[in-house]
Amino acid sequence: MAPILLWLIMFLCLLISVLKYLMGLILRVSFPRVKIQKDYTWHPTVSVLMPCFNEGKTVYQTIESISKSNYPPELIEVIAQDDCSVDDSYEWILKAQHDFSNIPIRAGRNDFNCGKARTVCNALEHSKAEIIISIDSDCIFHPDAIRELTACFAEPGIGSVGGRVGVSNPNDGVITAIQTIVYYAAFELYKMPENWTRSVCCISGCLFAIRRSLLLEIEPAIRARNWFGIPVNQGEDRFLTHQTLLRGYGTYINNDAVCWTAVPTTLSVLFKQQLRWRRSIVRDFFYTLRTLPRHVFKLHPNTVLTLVLTPLGAVVAFLVVVTMLTSDPVAWTGPAPLIAYLGIAAALTWAIKKYSARETIHHPLAFGAYIAWSMASALFITPLALCTMDSADWGTRTKQQQEEQIGLVSS
Amino acid sequence: MASSAVDPTPTTPAAPRSRPPLQSLAHKSVITIYRIVAIIVLYAVLLGVLSYAFVMGFYAVNSNWAAPVILSDSDEKSLDFMQKLVISRQTLEDLKVDIIRQQSTLAEMTKQRASLMALDPELQVAIARERSHDQMTGPQLAGLETQKKDDNAKTQALLTQLHQLEAEIRSDLASGLITKGDAATQLAALNQAEDAYTDSRIAGVLLSDDVLNKTTIGTKSLDVLEKQAELRSDIAQLDVTLSVADNQLREDNRQVERLRDAIEIAKQSPYFLNASGNKRLYFAFVPYDNQANAKVGAPIYDCYINMVLCRKVGTVKQIFHGEEVISHPIFKTQVRGLTILMDLSRPESAKSQTVFLGHKPLLF
């Protein structure tokens, strides 16, 4: 019985994944309802919360891009909250505060390092705007981004709106090229069916807009998050999205609200980032299992499917790779799979070149490399995530922090 | 909106809620157990991955592995093989019976041909003898026929006179010169004479027939000649049948030889040995790349986790050169090779995923 059930789940997850991409493609071209009704005449006050940790000069560039926004400057404020960076991030925030006087910029600093989620909450304490936009401090925002995000709140029932995250360094190497393809497919295809039912299950923390009242309602839950007493500082974006859905609000990703981020260029950084994301997926899965019986009839079926199958997909991917490597280790090197991978890569590369020229990829075999990375990722990251749920660091920047702290001690 | 001035007061995050000591202890216990389990799991995963990578690398370069194959009595190939063998044997037996039957028929036909051949000269002699007799009696009969014709002519003349005599008798009777009895006696004598003349004419006609038969080729001769032709035709047909039967017999004999050879070769197959013997036999598949190590008498090693702590478990007993194709025990790709028969001192090794021929795969 168990193997049949296992295979059934595996098949279902793979089918749903494939169907979601296909459905996304169909929805993009066929259903206008997928696109939200925007109202560009509504101009609420906006607080841009920017938690920051060891970002260096990037925070300055991020604030600069916000200052160039075409949203009425008198309605924007930036609240930059530093989580005890050991580099010069805070100085760069202060410099930005000095240089970009067209918008109000508040610079704050935590007493001690407490993670991104709580840093966002700390920043929230200083905000009074109607719409809160939480951003990553390493992103560059398109001038229309804020305008596009706020316009979506015109549709009744929308609680959170996300933006499209583009890759600013697609051709730094094969690693960045493969991430470009993944980001593009995720935002332009995979999220489309979720957009259709206003039930996106994870809005990226790079560009996350939420109604102030809703965020205030969720804030205590963010602060209270813990793993058997260990504070949870990661995956606040997924948690916020999930909470939005549980409270009966809709979630949406507006691909016209664009920000650009520099994706990891080395395997080790990519691995850490993916591990952090996977941990947050697994954590959300446990949360889903715990809360689903209470909320299952409140949520849209599409939301339930996504909430359950997305994390299950990670476990399934692990099982698929293990099964494949043990039963038929070299099957994936056969001509048929390779042709299929490269065919998908060619199609996506073409689509990126046509519809997002800035992200045009010059590595034609990048998707092939992505398949190898996916296998390694499925094999290692899921078990590692399951076994490191007690981690509470910032992920990609911890090592730098530790090294610098060690440097400070030794000096 | 807030001013753009620097906020000098650092923000202090809300203090975490204090937990009851019992809950805190429970959390600490859970976390400790979780971390221990996590470390064990992660090291197990790491060990598994490293082992997997090593096994893959090992089998990519190793050139003396062989994959034991246990053929059960109900093995599909063995059963199929035995079925074909039984059919071949049955065909062989059928052919043998056919050959015997054909040989018998051939002998009978040869005898019949000899009989027919013996008839032909006798027929020739009979025809010659008859012809010779005809040639001798024909002219004599022709002479007698002429004489007979002359006699009949004379008799006919006499009969004309007798017709006149008959008229005189009737006249005498009418005039009462003779009695009725005398007249009847005389008329009966005349009638006898006419009757004898008719017989003589019939004899003359028959004689002409005989002369014709004796002096010319008649239908009777043609009948004899036809029979002679039939006899020769029968002999010719029999020759053809004999030739065909002889060829068939030779072909059947060749087929028998071929089948015997095939059966002999088949008896050397591992599937035959497996299916026909009572003793359990142990086979192994050797890929062509490793063929150099497959020599009769070469030692066979069985190892733990398919590569280390090896011990000798037997020797190579026989090599079968028929090609076999199986899945690689590790890579699961199709591999071509041959089969060997192993003489195992430790039969459990036949259940190992791989064994090694000639030498240990590593140093230990």
Outline the structure in words.
The complex is a heterodimer of chains A (411) and B (364). Chain A is α/β, with parallel strands linked by helices. Chain A is built from 14 helices and ten strands. Chain A has helices spanning 2-30, 58-67, 89-99, 116-124, 145-152, 174-190, 192-196, 212-224, 236-246, 267-295, 301-327, 335-355, 366-387, 398-410; strands at residues 46-52, 76-82, 105-109, 131-135, 139-141, 158-167, 207-211, 226-227, 230-231, 250-261. In chain A, the strands form two sheets. An eight-stranded mixed beta sheet of chain A has the order 3-2-1-4-7-6-10-5, sandwiched between helices. In chain A, helix 8 crosses helix 9 (236-246), helix 9 (236-246) packs parallel to helix 10 (267-295) and helix 10 (267-295) crosses helix 13 (366-387). Chain A starts with a helix and ends with a helix. Chain B is α+β, with helices and mostly antiparallel strands and 364 residues long. In chain B, 64% of the residues lie in helices and 14% in strands. Chain B is built from five helices and six strands. Chain B has helices at 21-61, 76-175, 180-215, 219-266, 270-276, and strands at 65-69, 282-287, 299-304, 308-327, 334-344, 355-357. Chain B has a six-stranded antiparallel β-barrel. Chain A binds chain B through residues 45, 74-75, 77, 79, 81, 94, 97, 101, 103-112, 114, 118-119, 121-123, 125-126, 128, 223-224, 227-231, 325-331, 379-380, 383-384, 386-390, and chain B through 1-4, 6-7, 10-14, 16-17, 19, 23-24, 27-28, 30-31, 34-35, 37-39, 41-42, 45, 49, 52, 56, 330-333.
Key attributes of the depicted protein:
heterodimer, A: alpha/beta, 8-stranded mixed β-sheet, globular, disordered C terminus, B: alpha+beta, 64% helix, rod-shaped, disordered N terminus
In percent terms, what proportion of residues of chain A is strand? 5-15%
Alpha-carbon distance between the two ends of chain B: 78 Å
What class would the helix/strand composition of chain A place it in? Answer: alpha/beta
Tell me the structural class of chain B: alpha+beta
**Oligomeric state of this protein:** heterodimer
- Reading the helices and strands of chain B in chain order gives HEHHHHEEEEE
Which range best describes the helical content of chain B: under 10%, 10-25%, 25-40%, 40-55%, 55-70% or over 70%?
55-70%
Query: What is the rounded Rg of chain B?
Result: 59 Å
Residues in helices of chain A, as a percent range: 40-55%
Low-confidence segments of chain B, given as residue ranges, are 1-15
Average pLDDT across residues of chain A?
A: 84
Give me the side-by-side strand order of the main sheet of chain A.
Answer: 3-2-1-4-7-6-10-5
The overall strand count of chain B is 6
**Biggest sheet overview of chain A:** 8 strands, mixed
Instruction: State the end-to-end distance of chain A.
Output: 62 Å
| Total E-strand runs of chain A | 10
Q: Helical element count of chain A?
A: 14
pLDDT averaged residue by residue of chain B: 84
Shape assignment of chain A: globular
Largest sheet descriptor of chain B: 6 strands, antiparallel, barrel
Along the chain, the helix and strand elements of chain A come as HEHEHEHEEHEHHEHEEHEHHHHH
